[in-house]
Design brief:
Number of strands: 0
Catalytic activity: 1-(5-phospho-beta-D-ribosyl)-ATP + H2O = 1-(5-phospho-beta-D-ribosyl)-5'-AMP + diphosphate + H(+)
EC number: 3.6.1.31
Helix content: over 70%
Order of helices and strands: HHHHHH
GO molecular function: phosphoribosyl-ATP diphosphatase activity
Radius of gyration: 16 Å
Keywords: Amino-acid biosynthesis, ATP-binding, Cytoplasm, Histidine biosynthesis, Hydrolase, Nucleotide-binding
CATH architecture: Orthogonal Bundle
CATH class: Mainly Alpha
Shape: globular
Number of helices: 6
InterPro entries: HisE (IPR008179), PRib-ATP_PPHydrolase-like (IPR021130)
Distance between the termini: 42 Å
Largest sheet: none
Structural class: mainly alpha
Length: 110
């Protein structure tokens, strides 16, 4: 069985392959057809559901909601042309950097 980032990479490839597909046969194609605003909205909804699960539900519910949230995040990345490898590289760049220092460096860029 694939692990961690491999699973996300494989799922991302599947998501990209559904772009332009039949919205009546693929939920992912339906999301793409509805546009970035709807994709972002669905990601937001799943994020809130994940927070609720973390605060008031069990581990199984949190696990399921986390999977939904990650799926919708990958759809959003695909719609925006952000490949998972770019995100992994950014996370790797931040490894060992204090979160406070990293936020300060972003504030200086903006």
């Amino acid at each position: 069985m694939a692990q961690g980032s491999e699973i996300l990479e494989d799922l991302y490839k599947t998501i990209v392959s559904r772009r332009g597909g039949d919205p009546d046969k693929s939920y992912t194609a339906k999301l793409f057809a509805r546009g970035r605003g709807k994709i972002a909205q669905k990601f937001g909804e799943e994020s809130v559901e994940t927070v609720i699960a973390a605060l008031s539900e069990g581990r199984e519910e949190l696990t399921a909601e986390s999977a939904d949230m990650l799926y919708h995040l990958l759809v959003l990345w695909a719609d925006c042309g952000v490949e998972p490898a770019k995100v992994w590289a950014e996370l790797e760049r931040r490894l060992g950097v204090s979160g406070i220092d990293e936020k300060k460096s972003r504030a200086k860029k903006g």
